[in-house]
């Protein structure tokens, strides 16, 4: 059974940084497309970044140059490093393993506010 657990969210001031981690069990992170999504209040869930088999990554235009995604096969985790955070980045961030079946984590709250 595939299980994903996010961590690293919290409250940060504008311009600050956070690193989100997603611990994956039951599936190797470099065998699939791993993704980070976010959902702000009243908005639809949107794709933030994904990484294909631990290699090529795709980053949403609105966060390009500020966010990076990576995997660590040794710890079987996928991370989202977020720099120069802005209030509009406030959302619940979800880790997902895509494939025939998509598995989701429970989400972690990121709040950017002064």
SSE run: EEEEEEEEEEE
Mean pLDDT score: 97
Number of strands: 11
Helix content: under 10%
Distance between the termini: 40 Å
Question: DSSP helix count?
Answer: 0
* Helix and strand composition category: mainly beta
How much of the sequence lies in strands comes to over 45%
Largest sheet: number of strands, sense, barrel closure: 7 strands, mixed
Shape: globular
Give start-end ranges of low-pLDDT stretches.
none
CA gyration radius, whole angstroms: 13 Å
Describe this structure in words.
The protein has 114 residues and is mostly beta strands. Helices cover 0% and strands 52% of the residues. It is built from no helices and 11 strands. The protein has strands at 3-7, 10-12, 18-25, 33-39, 46-52, 57-59, 67-72, 77-82, 91-97, 103-104, 108-112. The strands form 2 sheets. Strands 2, 4, 5, 6, 9, 10 and 11 form a 7-stranded mixed β-sheet that branches. Strands 1-3-8-7 form a 4-stranded antiparallel β-sheet, with no helix packed on it. Strand 4 and strand 5 form a beta hairpin. The model has no long low-confidence stretch (mean pLDDT 97).
Please render the helix and strand layout as text:
Elements: E1 3-7, E2 10-12, E3 18-25, E4 33-39, E5 46-52, E6 57-59, E7 67-72, E8 77-82, E9 91-97, E10 103-104, E11 108-112
Parallel strand pairs: 2-11
Antiparallel strand pairs: 1-3, 3-8, 4-5, 4-9, 5-6, 7-8, 9-10, 9-11
Primary descriptors:
mainly beta, 11 strands, 0% helix, 114 residues
Brief write-up:
This protein is mostly beta strands and 114 residues long. It has strands spanning 3-7, 10-12, 18-25, 33-39, 46-52, 57-59, 67-72, 77-82, 91-97, 103-104, 108-112. It is built from no helices and 11 strands.
């Amino acid at each position: 059974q595939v299980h994903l657990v996010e961590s690293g969210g919290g409250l940060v001031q504008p311009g600050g940084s956070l690193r989100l981690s997603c611990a994956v069990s039951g599936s190797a992170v470099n065998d699939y497309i791993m993704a980070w999504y976010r959902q702000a209040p009243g908005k639809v869930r949107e794709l933030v970044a994904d990484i294909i088999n631990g290699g090529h990554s795709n980053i949403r235009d609105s966060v390009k140059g500020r966010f990076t995604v990576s995997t660590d096969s040794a710890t079987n985790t996928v991370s989202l490093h977020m720099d120069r955070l802005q209030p509009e980045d406030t959302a619940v961030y979800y880790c997902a393993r895509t494939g025939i079946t998509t598995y989701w984590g429970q989400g972690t709250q990121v709040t950017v506010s002064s």
